[in-house]
Inverse folding.
């Protein structure tokens, strides 16, 4: 499989705190990669750097071996979907307009609305939700609406930032199953950032463990439980570890 | 720290900050094209129409108080007849634009900063970027242009209402004849008095929206970050209006 997205030698510091320390990572075509790691290990910064929301101090992000800039970046930005941690739905727009946001410039509003309702149905939300505003939905429903927005324009790659944060275990499991089924039926690539091991086991084809700004372990999800890495074993088991002073992450 | 080094650092920081704000403003203004009429119209309602009551009431009471002050002061040198002319000139040249601008700053700069700051901390602005939408086009441009277009209209309405406030007091409390008061109000008013006030209004509207957008888009994290952005937006917009008023008055009337 060729790499759809590659990160090479990524370094990023905020003041004296180094968050990414020469990190290398690849996402293969059609693969679901889940990046795990403790709070402050650099997961979100890595995701933001791939999306161009954060500028790296050094290193680069490549799309099919080409630097992610200019036309390559524009094409990439048109072909991915993103589910934010708290959904990040636009407060001032009704749900259907949120879902159809990317479609509205490309097709008549009526067609975009119909497509939005179809995507809402795909994530288990009825048409009655279409005209509500984000503030009128529960956290789980907002997450689903965010997922509908992420898949609305038939993306080639989807990013999930902590998809189950803030949800009860049943709703979290529902979102995990939904993500897995969407990935299976569409065959798109995905990068998920999480520290929820249930999400990892449901969503991942491959797992990368981030620690102190570098990939500490990576491999197929099936081999994760047999890994020799102490930190990964503790992470999977949820065992407490002594924490260095002033390293609690931001 | 070495005073020379400190001065240099401060100068560099000020120059860099000014440059960043200038680029932000330029890109924001240019971002109106291609025109998205719906977004602009919504902001015209938010910034212009909904500010009418507060600007109108401010102008009404200011015009009324000004009439009382001019009458009381003018009596000292037997010049109380100048009340209508002074109220009219004072409102259209100075008090209409400045007080209208300050009231819009209080209402609009804070609202813009709070809205954009909240969007920033809830990742809605990041979401816009990931949906291939330039936040400057979608969020900043409509607000900047709506303020530039509507604040002069608010100032014009404020001028009229302020003069009416003076007329109400002049006729009902100071013994002026209604027709004479109105005739004297217009007699000494020149078109440049009105036009200069409207130009000031456009400049103040731009400063108000720019301050709200800048601090909102650059808000720090959390509720405290949004709170600071809101406060800074109002303070900076108010001081900028007063400073710009001094500069424009010097340019227009010296």
């Amino acid at each position: 499989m060729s790499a759809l997205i590659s990160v090479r030698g990524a370094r990023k510091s905020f003041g004296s705190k180094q968050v990414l320390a020469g990190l290398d990572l690849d996402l293969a075509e059609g693969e679901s990669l889940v990046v795990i790691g403790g709070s402050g290990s650099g997961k979100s910064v890595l995701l933001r750097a791939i999306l161009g929301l954060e500028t790296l101090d050094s290193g680069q992000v490549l799309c099919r071996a080409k630097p992610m800039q200019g036309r390559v970046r524009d094409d990439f930005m048109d072909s991915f979907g993103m589910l934010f941690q708290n959904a990040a739905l636009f407060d001032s727009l009704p749900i259907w307009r949120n879902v159809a946001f990317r479609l509205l410039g490309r097709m008549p509003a009526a067609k975009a609305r119909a497509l939005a309702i179809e995507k809402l149905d795909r994530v288990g939300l009825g048409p009655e939700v279409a005209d509500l505003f984000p503030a009128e939905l529960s956290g789980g429903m907002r997450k689903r609406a965010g997922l509908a927005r992420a898949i609305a324009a038939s993306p080639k790659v989807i990013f999930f930032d902590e998809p189950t944060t803030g949800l009860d275990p049943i709703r979290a499991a529902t979102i995990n199953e939904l993500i897995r089924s969407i990935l299976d039926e569409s065959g798109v690539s995905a990068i998920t950032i999480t520290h929820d091991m249930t999400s990892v086991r449901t969503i991942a084809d491959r797992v990368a463990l981030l620690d102190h700004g570098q990939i500490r372990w990576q491999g197929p999800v099936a081999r994760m439980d047999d890994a020799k890495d102490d930190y990964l074993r503790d992470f999977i088991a949820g065992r407490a570890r002594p924490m260095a002073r002033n390293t609690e992450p931001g | 720290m070495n005073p020379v080094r400190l001065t240099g650092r401060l100068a560099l920081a000020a120059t860099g900050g000014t440059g960043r704000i200038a680029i932000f403003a330029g890109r924001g203004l240019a971002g109106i094209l291609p025109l998205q009429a719906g977004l602009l119209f919504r902001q015209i309602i938010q910034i212009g129409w909904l500010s009418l009551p507060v600007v109108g009431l401010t102008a009404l009471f200011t015009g009324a108080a000004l009439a009382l002050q001019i009458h009381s002061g003018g009596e000292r040198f037997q010049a109380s007849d100048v009340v209508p002319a002074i109220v009219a000139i004072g409102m259209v040249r100075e008090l209409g634009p400045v007080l209208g601008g300050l009231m819009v700053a209080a209402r609009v700069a804070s609202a813009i900063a709070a809205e954009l700051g909240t969007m920033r901390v809830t990742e809605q602005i990041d979401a816009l970027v990931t949906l291939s939408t330039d936040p400057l086009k979608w969020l900043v441009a409509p607000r900047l242009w709506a303020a530039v277009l509507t604040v002069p209209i608010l100032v014009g309405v404020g001028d009229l209402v302020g003069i009416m406030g003076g007329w109400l007091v002049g006729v009902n409390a100071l013994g002026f004849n209604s027709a004479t008061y109105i005739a004297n109000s217009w007699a000494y008013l020149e078109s440049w008095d009105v036009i200069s006030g409207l130009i000031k209004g456009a400049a103040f509207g731009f400063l108000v929206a720019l301050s709200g957008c800048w601090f909102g888009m650059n808000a720090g994290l959390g509720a405290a970050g949004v709170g600071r952005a809101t406060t800074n937006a109002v303070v900076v917009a108010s001081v900028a209006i007063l400073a710009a008023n001094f500069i424009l008055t010097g340019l227009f009337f010296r």
